[in-house]
Write a structure and sequence with these properties.
This protein is α+β, with helices and mostly antiparallel strands. A three-stranded antiparallel β-sheet has the order 2-1-3, covered by helices on one side. The protein is flat, with a radius of gyration of 12 Å.
Length: about 60
């Protein structure tokens, strides 16, 4: 695990209407990540945004 994994463990993930998933950003707190996800979700595009915490191994299920 590197320093950024420890200090930025919260991810915002986007899934488009084709089922493709992308990491939008990494954040220090869940509240910060949720604020970003909510603001993006509120734009009315046909995309889904959610917040995930990085696992013990520092990896998530989304693609960069």
């Amino acid at each position: 695990m590197n320093d950024s994994t420890i200090t930025l463990p919260w991810l915002v993930i986007r899934e488009d209407d084709n089922g493709n998933r992308y990491r939008v950003g990494r954040y220090a707190t869940r509240a910060e990540a949720q604020k970003i996800a909510d603001s993006l979700d509120g734009r009315g595009h046909k995309r889904l945004y959610w917040v995930e915490r990085l696992g013990q191994n520092g990896q998530d299920g989304a693609h960069d």
